[in-house]
Specification:
Elements lengths: L5 E2 L2 E2 L1 H131 L1
Antiparallel strand pairs: 1-2
């Protein structure tokens, strides 16, 4: 606390006026500082709101990306199941076709085998008949 010197009419006017001027200067400085800080607070609040908006946007984007990722996974799993089912069905058809062809080849092979046996018998019979004819001719030549 400041002390003023006393004069006849009271305190020294120059000291009091200087003190009041100092108080005014200090008060104005405080007021200016408060105004500046209020403006800074207002600006920071505005910036905070901006960042909150960005945060909400990012959260929303992340949720959408997660949902899209889950949908892609789900679709991929379903598609893979369909592909596997189709592959099994196709494999089944291929196996059935192969079995049918193998059966046909086996039947043809058996038919060919029977035909070969028949051909051999007939050929043997023809050869035997021709041999008999040759023997008959030899007998006729020998007798004659």
């Amino acid at each position: 606390m400041e002390k003023f010197t006393r004069e006849q009419d009271g305190y020294n006017k120059a000291e009091v006026n200087k003190f009041i001027d100092d108080v005014i200067v200090q008060t104005e400085a405080v007021i200016n500082r408060v105004k500046s800080q209020q403006e800074e607070i207002k600006s920071l609040k505005k910036e905070l709101e901006h960042y909150k908006t960005i945060e909400e946007t990012l959260k929303s984007a992340l949720l959408n990306a997660e949902k899209a990722s889950n949908d892609i996974k789900k679709n991929a799993i379903e598609e893979s199941k369909i592909i596997v089912m189709d592959a099994k069905r196709n494999a089944s058809h291929i196996i059935n076709d192969a079995l049918i062809r193998a059966e046909k080849v086996e039947v043809k092979a058996e038919t060919l085998e029977r035909n070969i046996i028949t051909f051999k018998r007939k050929l043997k019979l023809i050869v035997e008949q021709q041999l008999a004819v040759v023997e008959d001719i030899e007998e006729l030549d020998l007798k004659g």
